[in-house]
Amino acid sequence: MTHTVTLIGKPGCHLCDDARAAIERVLAQLPPTASVTLDEASILDDDVLYQRYWEQIPVVLVDGEQHTFWRVDEQRLAIALTGHDV
C-alpha cells in the first residue's frame, strides 16, 4: 500500500523542523516494501491551510487525514504507515 505523509508548517517554525526530523527517522526505519511519499506545505502559501491549521502547526496528515499536531509520536506514525511498530 502507498501512503502520503504531509507536513503542514511554515518557515522558521522550530516545531516544524522537529516534526520533519521525526518523520524522516520513521521513514528511514520502514521496511523496503513500504511505499511512502513525504510532502510539505506551508500555511503561508495557502489561505485554506492557514485558516484551518495556523494554531496547530506543525500538522501531520497521513493520506489526507489529520494524524497529529505539534509533536510527532514516532511509534504512532510508524503504526499508521505499516500496521505495526518498526
Helix proportion range: 25-40%
What oligomeric arrangement do these chains adopt?
single chain
- Biggest sheet, open or closed, and with what strands and sense? 4 strands, mixed
- Poorly predicted spans: none
Helix count from the secondary structure assignment: 3
Ends distance: 16 Å
> What Rg is obtained from the alpha carbons, in whole angstroms?
12 Å
Strand/helix succession: EHEHEEH
Tertiary shape: elongated
Mean pLDDT: 95
Sheet-strand content, in percent, reads 25-35%
Quantity of strands, as a count: 4
Lateral arrangement of strands in the main beta sheet: 2-1-3-4
Task: State the secondary-structure class.
Answer: alpha+beta
Report on this structure.
It is a single chain. The protein is of the alpha+beta class and 86 residues long. 37% of the residues lie in helices and 29% in strands. It is built from three helices and four strands. The chain has helices at residues 14-29, 47-53, 74-82; strands at 2-9, 35-42, 59-62, 65-69. The protein has a four-stranded mixed β-sheet, sandwiched between helices. Helix 1 (14-29) crosses helix 3 (74-82). It is elongated and about 35 Å long. The mean pLDDT is 95.
Summarize the structure.
The protein is of the alpha+beta class and 86 residues long. Helices cover 37% and strands 29% of the residues.
Describe the secondary-structure layout.
Elements (H helix, E strand, L loop, with lengths): L1 E8 L4 H16 L5 E8 L4 H7 L5 E4 L2 E5 L4 H9 L4
Parallel strand pairs: 1-2
Antiparallel strand pairs: 1-3, 3-4
